[in-house]
């Protein structure tokens, strides 16, 4: 600093030049930083896009890498399975092997056809001559050796009964008297036996009208039109109406009711068929949706007095049932899928084993009231385990089990509550067979006729009555 400044203006110029150069450098660096930031933003957008694409591709590839969902490890119906899955389902079961040989156990009594005491026809099988010496056996001693009864079906042909209607003229007043009013329809009609058979083939054996007409023609020589078949089914529906109403009343007063629903193609749209069933009664009905409002409209306040046995469809949990039982068969299938998804983990198998042990406990003690507290403690200890590292599907099922935790072991405390909803599933599956054969219902009346008549048939079976006798009784009313 001892240097003497002789020209201050020159010094200021130098400083100004240095500041200008510094500003240019700063501006250049700012522009470079801004450019780098834009590049970083662009790269981040590209990275996010690539991540999204990768996630999408992983999801698309997972269907090939993850085990295929089928009726054995999910709620996928059998009708939507691949052929390969169907083969596996028909040759594999969720039941665990007991280690015992298949077939009848030691001491098991076999069953065979038994002779009846009053056969319709008796045929004596008697030899006419001696095969040793050739002499006639007429008048020889006859000894009964053994009896064989042969069961056969007589020739199937219709019996035509002609009824001649007379008019009697009263001698006193001259009035013309008939036993019944004169028929104004065809001279030839089918009676209740033919109508019952046609309705039985439609409702119980799920045949379309064309195949029923073909059967009646080929086997019995009858030729009713398909329109006549429709009229007979509709006639049965009308006569079954009081019975269906009575079935509904009994179900509304029942303590334990199983519910299920399934798609029902009707009149060029997708409706929903519902089932409500107990040990003694079965009711089918049709609705335009599968929301909780359907059950509210059908059963009203009676739902508050029911214990509902259902799957985990959210509509059931929006209702104020007295109690609830979640179908363990559904949960076991979902746990089976997780076990197939990751064979190295043990969590899903541990939960499944807990459910199986609870079911075995109930089956071993069918009438006991078993406290569910200890079973819930075991379940809670499994639900507290961290399964995040196993994947999203494990967390989804775990959270689902947490939500329905209080409804898993209710069947232990009440012997009247089943552990699964298989009875409802088996009942509603009959509709799918009908749709598979006929594709769709062409009218609302036809769909309701099938569901209501099927309610009568299934209820009759639960009371040890044959479906055919139940249908025949409708036409004899």
Beta-strand residue fraction: 5-15%
Average pLDDT metric: 87
* pLDDT < 50 stretches: none
User: How many strands, what sense, and barrel or not for the largest sheet?
Assistant: 5 strands, mixed
Order of helices and strands: HHEEHHHEEEHEHEHHHHHHHH
Estimate the global geometry from the Cα principal axes. Answer: elongated
Helix content: 40-55%
Our Rg estimate from Cα atoms comes to 39 Å
DSSP, total strands: 7
Q: What's the tally of helices? A: 15
What is the CA-CA span between the terminal residues?
130 Å
Strand order across the biggest sheet?
A: 5-4-3-6-7
**Helical/strand content category:** alpha/beta
How does this model look, in words?
- With 477 residues, the protein is an alpha/beta fold.
- The chain is built from 15 helices and seven strands.
- The chain has helices at 8-65, 83-91, 192-203, 209-220, 226-252, 292-299, 314-317, 328-341, 347-364, 373-383, 392-403, 410-413, 422-438, 444-462, 467-475, and strands spanning 168-169, 176-177, 256-266, 269-277, 282-287, 307-310, 323-326.
- A five-stranded mixed sheet has the order 5-4-3-6-7. A two-stranded antiparallel sheet has the order 1-2.
- β1 (168-169) and β2 (176-177) form a beta hairpin.
- It is elongated.
């Amino acid at each position: 600093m001892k240097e003497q400044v002789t020209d201050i203006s020159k010094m200021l110029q130098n400083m100004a030049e240095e500041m200008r150069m510094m500003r240019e450098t700063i501006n250049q660096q700012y522009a470079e930083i801004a450019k780098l930031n834009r590049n970083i933003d662009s790269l981040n957008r590209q990275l996010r896009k690539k991540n999204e694409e990768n996630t999408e591709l992983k999801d698309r590839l997972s269907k090939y890498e993850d085990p295929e969902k089928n009726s054995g490890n999910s709620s996928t119906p059998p009708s939507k399975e691949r052929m390969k899955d169907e083969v596996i389902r028909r040759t594999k079961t969720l039941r665990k092997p007991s280690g015992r040989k298949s077939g009848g156990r030691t001491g098991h009594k076999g069953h065979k056809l038994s002779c009846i005491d009053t056969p319709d026809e008796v045929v004596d099988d008697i030899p006419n001559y001696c095969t040793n010496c050739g002499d006639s056996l007429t008048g020889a001693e006859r000894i009964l050796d053994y009896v064989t009864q042969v069961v056969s079906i007589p020739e199937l042909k219709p019996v035509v009964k002609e009824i001649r209607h007379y008019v009697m003229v009263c001698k006193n007043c001259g009035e013309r008297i008939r036993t019944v009013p004169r028929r104004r329809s065809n001279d030839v009609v089918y009676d209740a036996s033919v109508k019952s058979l046609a309705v039985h083939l439609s409702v119980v054996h799920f045949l379309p009208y064309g195949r029923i007409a073909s059967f009646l023609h080929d086997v019995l020589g009858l030729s009713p039109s398909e329109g006549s078949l429709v009229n007979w089914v509709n006639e049965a529906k009308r006569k079954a109406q009081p019975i269906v109403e009575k079935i509904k009343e009994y179900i509304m007063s029942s303590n334990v009711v199983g519910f299920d629903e399934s798609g029902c193609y009707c009149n060029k749209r997708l409706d929903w068929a519902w089932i409500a069933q107990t040990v003694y009664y079965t009711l089918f009905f049709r609705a335009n949706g599968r929301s909780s409002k359907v059950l509210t409209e059908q059963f009203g306040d009676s739902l508050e007095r029911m214990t509902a046995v259902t799957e985990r469809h959210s509509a059931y949990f929006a209702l104020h049932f007295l109690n609830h039982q979640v179908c363990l068969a559904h949960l076991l299938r979902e746990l089976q899928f997780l076990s197939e998804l990751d064979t190295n983990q043990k969590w899903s198998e541990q939960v499944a084993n807990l459910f199986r042990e609870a079911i075995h406990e109930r089956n071993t003690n069918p009438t006991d009231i078993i406290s569910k507290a200890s079973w819930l403690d075991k379940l809670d200890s499994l639900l507290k385990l961290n399964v995040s590292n196993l994947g999203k599907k494990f967390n989804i099922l775990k959270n689902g089990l947490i939500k329905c935790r209080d409804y898993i072991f209710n069947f232990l405390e009440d012997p009247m509550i089943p552990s699964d909803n298989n009875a409802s599933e088996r009942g509603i599956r009959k509709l799918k067979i009908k749709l598979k054969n006929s594709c769709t219902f062409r009218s609302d009346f036809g769909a309701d006729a099938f569901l209501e008549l099927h309610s009568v048939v299934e209820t009759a079976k639960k009371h040890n009555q044959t479906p055919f006798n139940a249908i025949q009784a409708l036409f004899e009313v």
